[in-house]
Here is the input.
Amino acid sequence: MLQELRVKNYALIRSLVFKPEQGLNVITGETGAGKSILLGALGLILGNRADQTVLLAQDEKCVVEGLFHLEDTHLKPWFEEQDLDWDAKLVLRREVVPGGKSRSFINDTPASLQQMKTIGEWLVEIQTQHAIINLQDANRQRTLLDDYAGNRNLLGRYARLYQQFRAAQEHSEQLLAEQTAWLKERDYLQFQYQELEQFQPQPNEEQQLDSEIAALTHGAEISRTAWEAADMLDQSEHGLISSVARLRNVLKTGSKFSAKLAELHERAELLFNELRDISASLSGFTSLEAVAPEQLESLNDRHFRLQALLKKHQKNNTEALCDYMDELAQRLQEGDSLQDLIIEVKARCAQLQQELLVLAGEITESRMQGKTSFAAQVTELLQQLEMQDAQLEVSLEPLPEPGPYGADQVMFRFRSSSALPLNSLSRVASGGELARLMFAIQCVSARQAHMPLLVFDEADSGVSGEVASKFGSMMRQMAAAHQVIAITHLPQVAGAAHAHFYVFKEKDGDKPGSALRKLAESERVEELAVMISGKDPGNSARLHAMTLLKNASQH
Here is the structure.
């Protein structure tokens, strides 16, 4: 339960302390005094967003702090998971500083807005006139049925699985798009690769071709040079080889008598062998001129094709061209393996979809089991609210495929009289009918959800007379199992309260502000009398007020 709410510098509130009691607490007061502003402050510690406009004094920070007593420990695992200190006395605090930035705290530990919102959804249920309008929304209707059926954990599992399924679907779609793009360029990549594979470029080939072409281009000159050199070496009488042979023989004769001549003889022998070697090598050049044209044409053709490939692929040398050929081969291989990955991801999608359908079936079954009971209980309460012929029907319509919340669309259909057909809530014209329907739904939901604190912000708007008395009686009954806070204009509801708080305007200099105080029993009589007949109530109004309080105390 909420034990204390402290508000400072929020909207019209300078400083206020609200200490609701266990049971039914009502808040009344004149129009514009700030009754709903108090709930706006409560909303801050429940995760609602805020900006600088909430500051009464723009140069001071706004602080809202709520002290809750947690009667059970079902929230303890969540605190441990979030690395927050657990205490049965829970303090939620929100600060909004000049400039609009805010800070949140759970038991004095900095917390995120989402953490505040999560814990707020477990602690407090607020029904406003806006919520009554939202009742016409299909998503709200689905949420109400799921809350009643206890589907929170089941929907949590489903949501996680649905996210995995959608991620797998998006991955599959991305791969298919990549495959489509790859197929468009595959033929071109294949053509490029085959062209290079057929040519078979080799590292350093450009330099080797340049050298060979240069040699063949000057083949005649090289051949003539070789002939002349060979002639100088091989002339029978005056050639170098014959002269060195004679020199070798002469030195050989004298080498028997002189070590020096023996050394020179060895050197002459080496020179003779070297000249013969040179002569043999020259013989290879003398035939060059005869084969040069064909070889040169072939080499020039390959050189031309190589230059064309280098230019086409914007490469500086054959090493880069060889690397590009390897890159093309890899890209073609990756494209081929893309199909295998697509098959794998599609199989994953099919598996997740099957698991999703199974879980969606469990949610549908849970909704089917809950919808009849939910509709029957709401209908029973509507009859107690003077709508004897009213009926609520909850139907499930299958979706074409599972969505984020299952495979069903939940639809509420309602009629206020047996003479009318069942229609969607958007066709319910009366605000009073919607208010009673929403109140009955929240009563049923409260029984099931075990929500610690229920808040009604003028949820009784549009009702009066005996129906208003029923509202007050039913709120008091709910207060046996929940702490209830109700902002109301109805004396019948205010009279049913265990504690009555009055909001009024007070001035601090020239600036008005909102203040709140708990009314004593005698003050309650006077306030109820004013609510019944207006300012300066008569004795009959006071007697009516005392009757309301007496009747409430007997229940």
